[in-house]
Structure formats: structure tokens, C-alpha cells
Amino acid sequence: MENSWSHTVSGINEPTRIVDYIGDAFDMLGSRSAARKAIADGRVKMNNTKVYPSDTIKNGDEITLKGTGIRKAKKFDFEISSVYEDDHIIIVNKPAGIAVNGDRHKTVENALAGVVQKSKLNGALPRPVAVHRIDVPTKGLVMLAKTKSALIKMSELFEKNNIEKEYLAVVHGKPTSNGKIKSLVNGKKAETYYTVEESVASRNFKHLSLVRLKPVTGRTHQLRIHMVSIGHLIIGDRLYAKEYKTILGKGLFLCACKMIFKHPETNKKITVSIQAPARFYRLMEREKNRF
Questions:
Q1: What is the pLDDT of residues 154-191, one digit of tens each?
Q2: Closest among 190, 82, 214, 77 to 142, alpha carbons compared
Q3: Relative to the CA of 189, which of 1, 140, 161, 286 has its CA 20 to 30 Å away?
Q4: Is 135 annotated in the active site?
Q5: Which CATH number fits domain 164-256+280-290: 3.30.2350.10, 3.20.20.80, 3.20.20.70, 3.30.565.10?
Q6: Helix, strand, coil % (nearest 5) of the chain?
Q7: Is 0.85 topped by the overall pTM?
């Protein structure tokens, strides 16, 4: 049976939305984003009635929260390398082709469940829980929390775009040496900085370029959409290729290669980085030699 908790509202002196209140009322939520998700999942009731984020509360209302919101893992026997780990968080190098989490079997969360040692701290989660996601075809760094406190704090940092992230990609064409893209992504404000690391002439594609991408915001498919919006499709991106001739069957040439953040407990600045896949550089070298 799932755990449940109850809370009686008190100390309210002005109209307050339930989504703005329960993050502080329930320690296992701890943030507005977690509160909104709990409401969307139907885990929150007020006076035994379903609620919506905009519903207002008053003193004496009885709010109940059911369950932790953490899905039971489905065993997925797949080795994923750890890049950084302590009792609060773990950062892994996600292979391309598997999801971070969600309703599917092949996920990072399922692969780590029962494999990563459970935190010895108070508020330890039963398994590592992702605090953000990268696309299924994208390779690279993904952070998961091992405690409820780390999950709350790091989720908030990602939500507020206070984590520095860098990606490497191989794109069609030869962009200007550096620039900033601010076009909307799915109707929402988005911002990406890019720097060209190297460009080579290519017999098949005229030019290919290795670019470093720094997203300021974190919209779904932001880097893929932004690069194609300025005429530089990421190699292997069949979803946004349209009229582009690109390389298919070799995967998406996009890697989350660096993450800079403040540790959720010590507040110390942490930098974690990996090398881009060797195939990125092999492709550049091969096309250069063919010209």
C-alpha cells in the first residue's frame, strides 16, 4: 500500500494557490515543480476532492498527498558508466538510444536501480531519480539524485537554468565562428550560444563543423531546433532533416559533454566533463581527407 500524508492548512492571510503552498507543507515535495507534478499525477486532494494547480486554499482545509511519485523500477540489465558519484548525486554517461526515464523499459533509471549503492543519508531515495533529461538519441552526462533533498535542490537549479551545460555536435555547413540563437522553441523563449571548434571541407556535404553549444534555457530539442533554424542541421538528425541530405544509421552527432553546478550539500562548484565520442572526430577527419 502506498504511503500517504495529510496536512491541515493554517496561517493563511491572503488568497494562496495550492501549487504555491504544498511544496513547503510536504517535505517530500519541497519545490513548486514537484508540487505541480504531484497534482498532475492526481496524488493531491483537498477535502477529499481532486485539485488543480490554480485552486486556492483557506485555513482549515485538509490536504492529502499519496505516494512518493517515484515509479518502481523495471529491471534493465545494461551497464552505464558513472562519471561522478557521492551520497547525494550520481552523474552518468548515457549511451545514445536509451531514455533517461519514463514509461519504457530501456531507461537509465531502470539500469541503475539495484546497481548503484543506496545513500546512507537521511532521506535516501529507494533508487536514483533523474533531475533532468536529454533526448533519447543524444549521448552524454545525466544527473540523478540519491536523496530527496538533492532531488529537490538540483531539480530547482535545472528548472531555473542555473546549471551550466555544454554540448559538442557535428553540423552541416560552416557557421560563423560564434554566435547566439534566440528563436522560439515550441512557442517558448529559448537561448543558445555556439562556438565553432573546427570546420572542414567535405566532398559529400561541402563543409562539416564541430561546434560547442551552450544552452541557457532547457527546451525540448532546443539545440537541434536552434541549429537547423540557422541552416546547420546536426549530423544524423532524421527528425529535423527535411530537405537536408545527412548521414543516417550512425546516430545523432550530439553529446552532452560538460556540466558545471553547485553541489546540493557543500555548495562547492563542481565541474564534470567527458570527451565527445571518437566517431565525431573520425567523421571530420574522413571527410577532410576525401576532399
A1: 988 998 899 999 999 999 999 988 999 999 999 999 99
A2: 82
A3: 140
A4: yes
A5: 3.30.2350.10
A6: 20, 35, 45
A7: no
